[in-house]
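Appendix B. Raw example, untouched.
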Amino acid sequence: MNNLNKEDVTMEKKNGKCRVYLKGELCKCRYERGYRGKGDKQWRISVKVTSAKEKIVSAVKEILSATGIDPKDTFTPKWVKDCAVGVPDGDIYINTHTAFDIPCSIKGENGVKFDLDFETELFEGAEVIIALNCKKEGIYPASILVLKNGNPSNPFEGFPDESEV
């Protein structure tokens, strides 16, 4: 089948987008203001990637070939730059953001998926698979599948009694 259009550009390149899936641990999931606390409010998401190195390399190659993102560009995400020539030693973090709510489900027994409220029921430390929509303009989260949820944290746990302070 001929995948070329009138300009002799393959449809994959013409379309310029793809979706990749990576497994990891949710490190940050907060709704906060952007640049120095003065920008638009957005979901800030950070995932420590735990996928196999081969899968990370495959995902980065797919992103670069489908979108045409230049790994040396100033606006290319750090994890894509780092993994463009091979997966470096140490941890890899996907840091992304979106102004929109992200569909989020948890995988229950027998593979049944249940919707989770992204804001109140998803906890840091969760084992997740993150779906990333990738296009020339950027890489954004599409959805999150929770394999094992993290534990809620109480910032006031362990505080001394006021008489002790």
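End of appendix B.
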